[in-house]
Structures are given as structure tokens and as C-alpha cells.
Design brief:
elongated, mainly alpha
Length: 42
């Protein structure tokens, strides 16, 4: 294979990956979980 075809393949692959990541809805964290720990040091 020529070097040009390898470059075209990786460019199309990265474009497909970015479009797929854009289409997937990643929810933003809506609640912050706060936990209080008590340490009993001896």
C-alpha cells in the first residue's frame, strides 16, 4: 500500500471516531456525593 492510502485511512477513521463520540450523549455529573469519614486513630 502506498503511504497516501494509509494517511487517508487514518484521517477517515479519526473523523468517524469524533462523530461517534459527538453522537453519544455523555451525561454531566449532576450530584456531588459528599461522604464524611471518622478516623479513630490510636
Amino acid at each position: 500500500m502506498k503511504n497516501r492510502y494509509i494517511i487517508y485511512f487514518f484521517v477517515t477513521l479519526t473523523i468517524i471516531v469524533f462523530i461517534a463520540l459527538y453522537m453519544i450523549e455523555i451525561p454531566a455529573p449532576s450530584t456531588i456525593i459528599k461522604e464524611k469519614y471518622t478516623l479513630n486513630l490510636k
